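Run DUF4259 domain-containing protein through structure prediction, thanks.
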Amino acid sequence: MGAWGTGPFDNDRAADWAGQLADTPPHDRPELLRTTLLTVLPGGDRPEPARWTPWRSAGRAWSRLRRLGRTLRDDEDWGAEEVVAAACVVAGALPGGPAVDENYGPPAEVITSLEVDEELRALALRAVQEAIGEGSEWHDLWSEAGALDEATTALQPVVDALRRP
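Sure, done. The structure for DUF4259 domain-containing protein is below.
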């Protein structure tokens, strides 16, 4: 990961993902968020398709993204950087949520146009906790770089906003 800071969008992958979100038609953005967030949840932690409508739409999101020309190679799956970025976008769209860095993150109109329901908020919280938790690649990389406390502190407003019901 090419990183120039500890903020959620201060790395190549998150900044590229933010550009992809901005380029995605507004009606497809919630599905892109859900699809991104689901990538880090272990199979057993994913909601049951029959009981959770957004999970069923995740398959449609992949199909729609492919039609839009946004395919991913198997060796370039979304990882923690993109999940952190997606969680930051969801948190930023919540009432009183933290501001999203517009330098490398998506433009403000992308954030303000999103409607976040309870299921998306809960998914973002679970996904970001999985992505940055102890033992995750994100956690290990920042720990090895000696900047884990700084990176965790930068994400705390996002996690706090997602925890609010």
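The chain has a mean pLDDT of 81.
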